[in-house]
């Protein structure tokens, strides 16, 4: 009777949770719709006549829709690990990321943006401005639709690749295959492999170092005081260079030697500041893994904010670049590879990303931070450090990479290292579970190694150990499949939308 009652109560609780989530989703849809209606009303007040006027109105709404989807999907990579490791609450992450994304877009989004992502199409190959406008509208809408679909199935995808796919599909139909820069496309395809592999390997390397140098030392606290300040210094140096090159590149472009010097100075200053801070924070901590992980909390919060700022500065172009091109062409400016960005276009991109994050972002944040593998502050710090280091290394080598693929690759990397350590390293060193720390805490009491079964005649017969799976393969398969089909599916969608628009709209100005 009690079991039946317990099951019934559980079903009622699950139903209540599902109803609450449905209500939240409906509210999010409603608020997102209000934002798009607001953009529609604003664009209607701009004035004008003929196709040019309506092109701007429709493109403004599509740009708002795209910005919402970028916020819902792409920002999860910046704050997901911090939320999954409990360094940030969901509400705190949403607030920090929304402010930093919008600030990055408005402050450092740039006055001039590329109209055609990554130089995929030669503008000279497009026959007339109206055809160009329809191609840009089709590519923007196709990318937004695919990102929306990917978000609904819980797959973080590259918004840049989505826009590229859309531009390719619409460009082939509008101007022919010869108009596409296929060398650039090959580089982008190469980045599908390079980005996650590099991100995963770098994250693995840092986590392995932290395990050996800190977590598996008899006195973890002393090891943490020695190694955590220089690790945070490396993060600070990388983020300084990353922000100057990527986040502030539209405002200030110093020589590379100056940028490198700024990064080195930031690293040294961080080392000097963090050494006494870590010593003070660790003064009364227990000699446990969880205590050491807590020392990474503040660096994780700062890195999430900086990544969001840089993301807003860079990826706002994915929403507003094609929109700015449409506005420029519709207002008689013709077809151009780069255009001056109207203030309202940048504001639409910034607000759309922020609203999309707050309204629809939690699902992908949970996927990246919680559902792929279990993250604590130490593992999440390795993912953040991997994102900064990998982008810089790839930029120095001239390799095209995706920040989305790097971050998610880093999460998979630390997860697979956990599996390797649990299934290979620990069984190979069973005696280490009896090592005592300076504070006389057995390592197995904090989960570093599996406990040893008691000796004696009551000890059960040994069974062949099953391999532990610490990465959810279902999410791995979903995400990889989404990455592989992003460009081709966006291209097909854009081609179909372009043909539909061309059939409905007469190409006369």
So what's the overall shape? globular
End-to-end C-alpha gap: 75 Å
Q: Summarize the helix and strand pattern as letters.
A: HHHHEHHHHHHHEHHHHH
Total E-strand runs:
2
Percentage of residues in DSSP E strands: under 5%
Rg from alpha-carbon coordinates: 25 Å
* Number of alpha- plus pi-helical segments: 16
Strand order of the largest sheet: 1-2
Number of domains: 1
State the major sheet. Answer: 2 strands, antiparallel
Structural class of the secondary elements? mainly alpha
Give the integer mean of the pLDDT values. 82
Helix content: over 70%
How would you concisely characterize the structure shown here?
The chain has 509 residues and is mainly alpha-helical.
In words, what does this structure look like?
With 509 residues, the chain is mainly alpha-helical. The chain has one domain. It is 73% helix and 1% strand. The protein is built from 16 helices and two strands. It has a two-stranded antiparallel sheet with strand order 1-2. Helix 7 packs antiparallel against helix 14, helix 8 runs antiparallel to helix 9 and helix 11 packs across helix 12. The longest helix is centred in the N-terminal third of the chain and has 43 residues. The radius of gyration is 25 Å and the shape is globular. The N and C termini lie far apart (75 Å).
